[in-house]
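Researcher: Please predict.
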Amino acid sequence: MRAGRAAARSHASDYPGAVTDATPASAQPRPARRRREKTLLWHLIAALLLPILTLMAKYVTIDGHKLPKQGAFILAPNHYSEIDPVIMGRFVWGLGRVPRFLAKASVFKNPVLGAILRASGQIPVDREGGGRSDAPLKAAQQLVDNELAVIIYPEGTLTRDPDLWPMRGKSGAVRMALQAGVPIIPAAHWGTQQIMARYSKKISFFPRKRIVCKIGDPVDLSDLMGRPIDQAVLTEGTTRVMNAIAALLGDLRGEQPPAERWDPVKNNQKETGRFE
């Protein structure tokens, strides 16, 4: 028995900071207190929205266990409807986390909606970028420091692909993941277009729809970590993310996604705004 205890102490000594039964309680490190994500405001928002969303659709989550229960991460979903953020927010909330977004700065100009978005931790993004393009990433970094979840649509806008497949992505999500050293998790959902079609302002409540969301494994960017974040690195990382999202969507649709992502420039389309 003594030999067994001695062996246990010997093995424990191989891991600095390991806590054993022999470690005095006063010497054991106290776990850091996590800031409560689901604040009163978030519970109020959920109480207002969830009944309406439940009325509109049945929500099915596949591989929800792959969404981290704690810690910082970036969730990168596909984007093809104006109501996507609300739907993805509902899925993330149902999996125990609070959704935070990089949202269009123009939305924050509404006095009431803007106040709610700021109070709930959403982040305004100026699409035109310019010299202010680092501001949203710095703000998002604060959320990362607080071990929160950030949802970024890597396409930057609704997909231009005529069949609603993910199109070519922008590099912001990958840049943030590499700079902050956090995982980027792909996700895909399907069925939202039945509630609100692309660029439509009409919401269909009946009949009740079915929306499915699938969570993927973190995109492997390990070989890109520590390298200078240049265009080649960003392009490679973004390609991996978009391919992962397309593969997840292909699983949901039971179809093979296109081999290449749709490129608006090659198809004479504007990068922002409506194209239909």
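Model: The mean pLDDT is 84.
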